[in-house]
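dumping this here before i forget
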Amino acid sequence: MNYGYLETPIGTLLIAGDDAIHAIYFPKNGKAVKPEADWTESSRGAVGVAIKQLKEYFSGKRAEFELPLAPEGTAFQRSVWGQLCEIPYGQTISYGELAKRVGNPKASRAVGAANGQNPIPIVIPCHRVIGSNGKLTGFGGGLPTKEKLLALESRQLRFD
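structure:
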């Protein structure tokens, strides 16, 4: 597995992949996550492309990612993550709506759990899912990060 770091306005991201992106890690306690011992630092291949596209995203120049992705999860989780990728840039949906889109309208909690296990945040836009009351709810990167990502996408915030 290769990895690279990207300094962003929401902290230093760790991006891991080989021929495809497997994971993006938000900082923990304000510090970049450390790679696994057997990983190699390299911005070649998918990791380099992801770094370039994430820079474009944070500068407001990219609304969609064109990356090979290889998230590891159950069939249900992968179906939820697939539906997340269908939420347009700058828009949000509720957990209930996401549950409907995966074909199980009563599975809001299961959808929320799968959303929370998304290994490739930002690119698989789990930040675009909000509570049915319009409030921001749980997010692996923290609610302030979710708020910043949504503000960036609604053009209320520029990071360049």
